[in-house]
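Reopening this ticket.

The earlier resolution said the output was attached, but the attachment link was broken on my side. Pasting everything inline this time so it's all in one place.
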Amino acid sequence: MSPSDMKPLDMSSPRTSSPVPRQRRAGGAPETTSAAPSSAALSSAGSSPACGCDEGRRAGVRRRSVLAGALAGALALTVGDASTQVALAEPGYDGDALVVLSLRGGLDGLSAVAPVGDPAYAGLRPDIAVPASVAHRLDGVFGLHPALGPLLPLWRAGSLAVLHAVGMGQANRSHFSAMEEMERAAPGTTLRTGWLDRMVGGTGSGSVFSAVQAGRSMPSASLRGPTGEVAFPALADLRLRSPGRGEEGRRAAALRAMHAGARDVVAAPATAALDATTRAAALLAGRPAPPVAYPASDLGRSLQDVATLVRGGAGLRAAAVDVGDWDMHVGMGAPTDPAGWMHGKLTDLAASLVAFAADLGPDLQRVVLVTLSEFGRTAEQNGSGGTDHGYGNAVLVLGGGVVGGRVHGRWPGLAPEARVGGDLAVTTDYRSLLAEALVTRCGLSPSTVFPGQVTPTRGVFRAR
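Inline output:
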């Protein structure tokens, strides 16, 4: 991939958007469910170490759970630190389950998938660049960070691909507004729904499970909208709070009877939440024994729950999983240091993805997982052993329908004249990648999800 004749996307001032809810500071106490009449949702709050920037220091991770008013207090969740948003649907949809793994805080794609063959790379990062000698080479330009080595078998098997220099059409270096805009995915419009909500709505009537959030990440807006949703921190926590062992059935029956004559706006969410608890218990009982070994991390547990939904035939259409703590302004660590911040995060990411693929087995053929981050990092390291908010980024794509073993996209290079504001340019709008997945793997038109003209990428996915 040559840097020549590669033009970055046009960039202008970032749009102003509504702020997302404030986060909870690290160490905050867990929340219990709160009431809202609009959906059958069970959600969670998590926590995250403070970001090194002023914006991040003002916020930790927080998302208030939502549950139909009639069930508030009847369902209790143990709050975790990772987030899983899951949208499930009734039989009839035959597309892939689309899993969006949001790496909150701004992944340093120039470390994760390092352009070790770019002549400018090492000079921009004298202390933190991935040396070519330790990178897992993918082609003549790129190599995986040493901690991502466990992904190589998936790469060689053709189940894993990379797309580099990806991002939004307009640079936005604010965590809050960049995430809001990325998850709304409707620049230049007043549309306020999330793109995943529009995606699920475009596939027809849904089923009980629709959305979940937990974890060290910003709250997701991608599932905001009219599609019915359920939110939970973990499948194992999706249960009725009961005063004693064996009382769950009696309490569920009483709640169903209580809502039998209620208006649909009250009864439907309550019934859906009760159905979710019953379905979750059955799915957990059907997990293989012994189970696939996932990392004992929030990301690992969240991906295990998503795999359980897929393998259990729950009709999964879309899932969003969030994991935070990627905002490494200070002390990201040397690429070869297992105790380093970046090394540790990438180790967890790799192990979780490997376990996810192994757990799915042949069901990986009907799953597409895409990593997204609100922005990349500066091409040049800062004076604190880290990087600051940048622009273009790397995306990992995993699934049976992926054209894997390749780095897709147009690499603009890191020469001064090729960078935008000093950062890696964006040559692929992230919506174009998602649009190709929607067309080839989900059977949807991009216009169903993304307003305006969004041209899908070509060649990243195989048609079903």
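Reporter confirms the inline version is readable. The chain has twelve helices and 14 strands. Confidence is low (pLDDT under 50) at residues 1-50, 57-90, 213-219.
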